[in-house]
Amino acid sequence: METIVKEYSNGEVTIVWKPGLCQHAAFCGGELPAVFKPRERPWINPQGATTEQIVKQVKRCPSGALSYRLEGK
Ligand code: SF4
């Protein structure tokens, strides 16, 4: 099965999302709603918080669907 990977970058951090692993519990959206908006498309807005806040939230994803990559560092 092909693994779908979506990326959302603010130029400093790239949020990597694997929909196949996401449990769609909107856990991330509940905690950082300015970035994770399950009702919108695209549903991740990487401009909605600081890179530090994004990294912290990505690490809290329970399923491993979210990961991140720091750019230019
Ligand atoms: S926290 Fe992770 S598993 Fe839960 S909705 Fe967000 S991306 Fe999906």
Separate helix tally: 2
What's the overall average pLDDT, rounded? 95
What's the gyration radius in Å?
A: 11 Å
Main sheet record: 3 strands, antiparallel
Physical arrangement of strands within the biggest beta sheet:
1-2-3
- Percentage of β-strand residues: 15-25%
> Which CATH C-level class is it?
Alpha Beta
Q: Please provide the count of β strands.
A: 3
End-to-end Cα distance, whole Å, is 33 Å
What is the architecture at the second tier of CATH?
2-Layer Sandwich
Low-confidence spans:
none
Q: Return the domain count.
A: 1
Fold topology:
Elements: E1 6-9, E2 13-17, H1 27-31, H2 51-59, E3 66-70
Antiparallel strand pairs: 1-2, 2-3
The structure holds iron/sulfur cluster (SF4).
Describe the structure.
The chain is an alpha+beta fold. It has a single domain (6-70), classed as Alpha-Beta Plaits. The protein has two helices and three strands, in the order ββααβ. It has helices at 27-31, 51-59, and strands at residues 6-9, 13-17, 66-70. The chain is globular. It starts with 5 loop residues before the first strand and ends with a strand. The model has no long low-confidence stretch (mean pLDDT 95). The structure holds iron/sulfur cluster (SF4).
